[in-house]
Design a protein that fits this description.
The protein is an alpha/beta fold. It contains twelve helices and twelve strands.
Length: about 350
């Protein structure tokens, strides 16, 4: 909703992706246009679509400042990052993840009722099958994606930080609460663990095992980066992860995703900047935001079209009203969006 201009109730972003025309409309909650409480409306070639379906139309790789939490932050951030790649890699993954989430919600509701003696355990059987079927698919796809990411991740890390990579390759380890025994499938392992935790589940009123509780670990020289790496090492590993994602999705059909970089150059040393510039220069389209052009490599500015985006900050004297003017952006091969200075943003 922050994209909606001060004093306005609606904003619209339109674009062409191959043969598809995409229209995304954001509506301020409570406005006259927000009929039925709708806040986001998406159309592809005039047909309403869900946000989850856009990954099949437009693939995007994003590096933003909040990505720095990917290694040391909540496991949910790492699961979400992997799920996003898996959705772009496997068309059926999004459906399996949605089925698993619905089954999980139903199981948790029943487990709470069982704890309060308002339901019988036998009722869980109805939701156990979709939970196990979809859960097994989710784990299998996640592990497969990590296997495919292994080589491009190690390569990208070696290009960005050759001294670190010379000691050991950067890896991502999948940490599951339902590890497979010899001969077990992910589904069978999950079914076994579900049986082992049945009593504890009923006592706690929640599902204790499954891909919703799994995690990822960024590992260098057999050590988890979350526990020992410096901020610079973590940033380097995350950047390598994003470039590996870019390579993996490009390999699907030869069409690279759109790369979005939000104020990423300000904390990179010259060597890392140069590497990123080379990657950007080879892409059909990339968008980079920065608070000052001084943070950008001259080689990038030489091939980019630069736009300035002025913040619509309300004037206290106008009682909340803002300047109705807004920028008009023209698509370009490579685009750098530059915003107000750090002082203006604070």
């Amino acid at each position: 909703m922050d994209l909606i201009r001060w004093g306005a109730d609606i904003t619209r972003v339109e674009g062409s992706v191959g043969t598809a025309d995409v229209d995304v409309t954001l509506v301020r909650a409570g406005s006259a246009q927000a009929s039925g409480g709708a806040r986001k409306r998406i159309r592809v070639n005039g047909v309403p679509r869900r946000a989850s379906s856009l990954s099949g139309v437009l693939r995007v790789v994003l590096f933003a400042p909040e990505e720095m939490l990917l290694i040391a932050g909540s496991p949910s951030l790492r699961r979400a990052a992997l799920d996003r790649i898996a959705t772009g890699r496997f068309p059926a993954y999004g459906s399996a993840l949605a089925t698993y989430t619905r089954a999980l919600q139903q199981r948790n509701g029943l487990l709470r009722a069982i704890r309060e003696e308002a339901a019988d355990r036998a009722q869980l059987r109805y939701w156990d099958k979709p939970f196990l079927d979809a859960g097994g698919e989710v784990v299998e796809a996640r592990v497969h994606v990590l296997e495919e990411l292994a080589a491009p991740l190690a390569t990208a890390h070696a290009e960005i930080a050759p001294d670190e990579a010379a000691r050991a390759p950067l890896r991502i380890r999948y940490e599951t609460n339902a590890p497979q025994r010899a001969g077990e499938t992910p589904r069978a392992a999950l079914e076994r663990r579900l049986a082992e935790t049945a009593e504890k589940e009923a006592w706690n009123g929640t599902t204790l095992v499954g891909p919703h509780r799994d995690d990822l670990a960024f590992v260098l020289d057999d050590r988890d980066l979350a526990g020992f790496a410096s901020r610079g090492q973590q940033r380097t590993a995350i950047l390598a992860f994003k470039l590996a994602e870019l390579d993996l999705l490009t390999a699907l059909d030869g069409q690279p995703p759109v790369l979005l970089l939000d104020d990423v150059f300000s904390e990179l040393d010259p060597d890392r900047r140069a590497h990123l510039v080379r990657r950007i220069a080879g892409l059909p389209q990339a968008f980079v935001t920065t608070t000052t052009l001084d943070d950008l490599d001259p080689a990038l500015l030489a091939i980019a079209e630069t736009w300035r985006v002025d913040a619509n900050v309300p004037d206290p004297a106008s009682k909340g009203e803002s300047d109705p003017g807004h920028p008009t952006l023209t698509p370009a091969r490579g685009a750098t969006l530059t915003g107000p200075s750090r002082a203006d943003r604070s």
